[in-house]
Amino acid sequence: MVPRVDVLGVEISAVNMKMTLDTVIGWVMSNDRQYVCVTGVHGVMESQRDSELAAIHNNAGLTTPDGMPMVWAGRAAGAHWIQRVYGPDMMLAVLAEAQARSWSSFLYGGAPGVPELLAERLEQRFPGLQVAGTHSPPFRSLTRDEVRETAALINASGASLVWVGLSTPKQERWMSELRPLLEAPVLFGVGAAFDFHAGRVKQAPPWMQTSGLEWLYRLSREPRRLWKRYLTNNPRFVVAIVRRRPRLIAPVSRPSLDDYS
Q1: Is 261 contained in some domain?
Q2: Residues 255/67, Cβ–Cβ less than 8 Å
Q3: What letter would DSSP give residue 143?
Q4: What domain range is 144 assigned to?
């Protein structure tokens, strides 16, 4: 368990990459069923309008600071050790452990052909990496039968790690719904990491990522899809965070294996 920072009611884990890796390794070794959200301004602001989404973030084993505003909020609250745990970077760091420890992964999400392309790229990057399965779901919500079929498919693969690339808030809802049905110790909602690591979309330059300007780069690349997210949520976040300052909160127990049995 790690401290969290209350950012407008969303509890962001006060972690860095090493803390994240140590936590994930512990979960896999102990077969503790958890899910990981990676959250920035978009996730926090969507949670202002959706209490269920806020609860999903707050019940996650980890809700990592995906964007620099979450890091700045954490440090302002006194978590001086907090660092950005960006979804695409976390994915590579965890997969390096998976390669060394022979953990298998299931890739769920992306447009048709994307998870297969991603698997190919990752296996090239991490020789010997075990990809137990891939699946590109329909864009619509799953029916109850499809939820059960999806869970059976992933469980049959024997994967230890399930990577979910559906974007926020769809992937967070998926993890919350499927968590009780899945045997894999850890689920990760990593969104655009699928397209980045499959080579379909370019990432922002490092200097833009560390300066908090990644949103501007992504907006310039996909204005039609992202304009509302960034040009609406970002100003509202600034106003809201001035009115309600972030605060550090003590660790609390999260749902674990017994809760999902």
Answers
A1: no
A2: no
A3: P
A4: 4-256
Short-list 57, 52, 53, 4, CA closest to 255: 57
Question: pTM of the entire structure?
Answer: 0.89
Overall domain count for the chain:
1
Count, residues in the chain: 261
Out of 103-112, 149-158, 236-245, 249-258, pick the least confident: 249-258
Coil, strand or helix at 131: strand
What phi and psi, each to the nearest 5 degrees, are found at residue 122?
A: -70, -40
In a domain, 112, yes or no: yes
Residue 191 lies in a domain: yes
Which of 64, 62, 115, 257 is CA-nearest to residue 179?
257
Q: How far is CA 181 from the centre of its chain?
A: 19
Question: What residue has token string 């990644």?
Answer: 214
- Quick: pLDDT tens for 131-140: 999 999 998 8
3 state DSSP class of 64? strand
Strands (E), 151-229: 161-165, 186-189
Alpha helix stretches (DSSP H) within 78-222: 87-101, 114-125, 144-157, 170-178, 193-197, 206-210, 214-221
SS3 60: coil
Give the single-character DSSP code of 258: G
In a domain, 236, yes or no: yes
pLDDT in tens, 92-118: 999 999 999 999 999 999 999 999 999
Burial class (CB in 10 A: 0-12, 13-18, 19+), 134: buried
Contact 236, 45 (CB under 8 A): yes
